[in-house]
Amino acid sequence: MKRTQHNEHHLSHRSNWLRAGVLGANDGLISTASLMTGMVAAQPEFHTLLLTGASALVGGAISMAAGEYVSVYSQADTEKADMEMEKRELEIHPEEELDELTTIYEERGLTPELAREVAIQLTAHNALDAHMRDEIGISEENFANPLQAALSSAAAFAMGAAIPLLVILIAPINILLATLIFSTLFGLGLLGYISAKLGGAPARPAIIRIVIWGAIAMGITGLIGKLVGVTV
């Protein structure tokens, strides 16, 4: 009997890079736009405003890269340590590890006989991979990459931060604040829409969440700038 092929396109494999990309772009856009909103409300000179925006972009991108690198490197070290531990256990206590794998499959609904047979076959195929995947929940193929995560986060942050910086460069001074707020909220809404579509989630809740937080951040920093700023 010929087996029919049924393809399903799951989206959970995107979770890691999607989280890092959305977090970086969201952080870059909100933090830089909020800083610029406070500065514009304080009415500084143009070169001061531009320098502040450029510094926020560069400093924020480097900070995101460093934070993501350290965080993911720690995760990678933990995953490698778990892998080495499993290697030792498989060498020293192979029968106990086989029993452990059998128990895992029994708890997932297999009969004891079938669970034992599955455990034996998977152990014969690749014991370490079976234990890493089914006992610990990680795969050697999917180990975290610190450098990749750092570069991705820095690039995403810079892309988000570039929006308010471009507004500062091209918008007329008399409508600069309004243009900055509108472009930021529009950019956040677009980011929420894209992230929802890539993750297969409803778009409206994602857009509302991200726009509300952006509005709150810009509102607070704009008020601070207005209160403590000095007209030049």
TrEMBL record:
GO molecular function: manganese ion transmembrane transporter activity
Pfam families: VIT1
Cellular component annotations (GO), alphabetically ordered: endomembrane system
Primary localisation category: membrane
Entry keyword Transmembrane: yes
GO biological process entries: intracellular manganese ion homeostasis
Membrane-traversing stretches: 149-169, 175-194, 206-228
Alphabetically ordered keywords of this record: Membrane, Transmembrane, Transmembrane helix
Protein name: VIT family protein
Organism in which the protein naturally occurs: Actinobacillus porcitonsillarum
